Automatic annotation (TrEMBL):
Lineage, uppermost ranks: Bacteria, Bacillati, Bacillota, Clostridia, Lachnospirales
Family of this protein: Belongs to the bacterial solute-binding protein 2 family.
Database matches in PANTHER family: D-ALLOSE-BINDING PERIPLASMIC PROTEIN-RELATED
Name used for this protein in its record: Ribose transport system substrate-binding protein
Primary location group: other
Length: 324
């Protein structure tokens, strides 16, 4: 039986920046009366649903009141929702977003009102943002993509191959681009010659399927699709099935349940980078409590990625060792 246990936290901090909770209005409140502002980029993706469900469960255990706003995949919508939470005088702000670069002003308002900001799902924020937040956790986008490319290089070498022609289903954000570049670099760093035929900007499964159909027609010699999200990869997979082109491989990112089910069917969906949104959410709750208790902690908290493939769940260490 394949194991699906996700990798344990990689809590070694990327920076030595640490923080001590100041004696502000949050610190002075009873923890059980805490009012949390929570905003995610969208609940259209299972990754964020798992994160939301876990956070809400943990908040209920701690008797916290949570006000949630959904960004609905739109920077302005999410920004306005966070502004409403600031105006509502929440005690703690928790954000998971693709649009962190656009939030400097509202995060500065949080600082001015002594509202600590906790970021889930993105540790690679610009310096001007890092100065305004108390904490950030998540999978390292480039490193996780590189891990996927490392696994893929071993997979190709086992087939006697040293080159690949591919297309990526990527998004417009720097985080998504880092996942794509990491995947390509992971293969080239391990001796695979990579030709990227096209990079498709997609945000939904339907867009990825349409782009996949285009790629299969435009590039008849394409050999691999890589999606920087589960929806991107699953859409590309749908295109290969619909066109009866299942010789074209697919590799994904996120580790959503549907991906794992498809991989278990032993078809052309080779594997996926696995994340742990439930662990990210529960870890964030843990660090909010550390903040309330006045504990000192590192600002950046990486969460380990892994790989799910026909062998089951692999840790980053297992993937790196097998590729040597």
């Amino acid at each position: 039986m394949k194991k699906r246990v996700l990798g344990i936290l990689g809590l070694a901090a990327l920076t030595l920046v640490s923080m001590i909770a100041p004696a502000n209005r949050v610190y002075a409140k009873e923890e059980e009366n805490l009012k949390i502002g929570l905003s995610f980029v969208s609940l259209n993706f299972p990754y964020y649903v798992r994160m939301y469900d876990t956070f809400m469960e943990e908040a209920e255990k701690n008797n916290w009141e949570v006000s949630f706003v959904d960004g609905n995949l739109d920077a302005t919508t999410q920004l306005n929702g966070i502004q409403d939470l600031v105006n509502d005088d929440v005690d703690v702000m928790v954000i998971s977003t693709w649009y962190i670069d656009a939030m400097e002003d509202v995060l500065q308002q949080c600082v001015d009102k002594d509202i600590p900001v906790f970021v889930i799902g993105n540790t690679e924020n610009p310096d001007n943002i890092n100065e305004l937040i108390q904490y950030a956790c998540g999978t390292e986008h480039y490193d996780a993509g590189h891990l996927g490319g490392t696994y893929m290089s071993k997979y190709l070498k086992d087939q006697g191959r040293d080159s690949i022609k591919m297309a990526t289903m990527v998004g417009s954000t720097e985080q998504m681009k880092a996942r794509a570049q990491g995947f390509v670099d992971g293969m080239t760093d391990h001796g695979i010659s990579v030709e990227v035929l096209n990079e498709y900007d997609v945000s939904t499964r339907e867009e990825a399927m349409a782009s996949g159909e285009d790629a299969l027609t435009t590039y008849p010699d394409i050999e691999l699709f890589y999606g920087v999200s589960a929806q991107g990869a699953l859409g590309a997979y749908d295109a290969t099935v619909g066109a009866n082109r299942t010789e074209v491989m697919v590799f994904g990112y996120d580790g959503e349940d549907e991906e794992l089910e498809v991989i278990d069917e032993d078809n052309n969906y080779v594997g996926t980078v696995t994340q742990a949104p439930d662990v990210e959410a529960s870890t964030t709750v843990e660090y909010i409590k550390k903040y309330l208790d006045g504990e000192e902690f590192d600002k950046i908290v990486p969460i380990s990625a892994g790989i799910y493939c026909d062998e089951g769940q692999l840790t980053a260490e297992e993937v790196e060792e097998s590729a040597k």
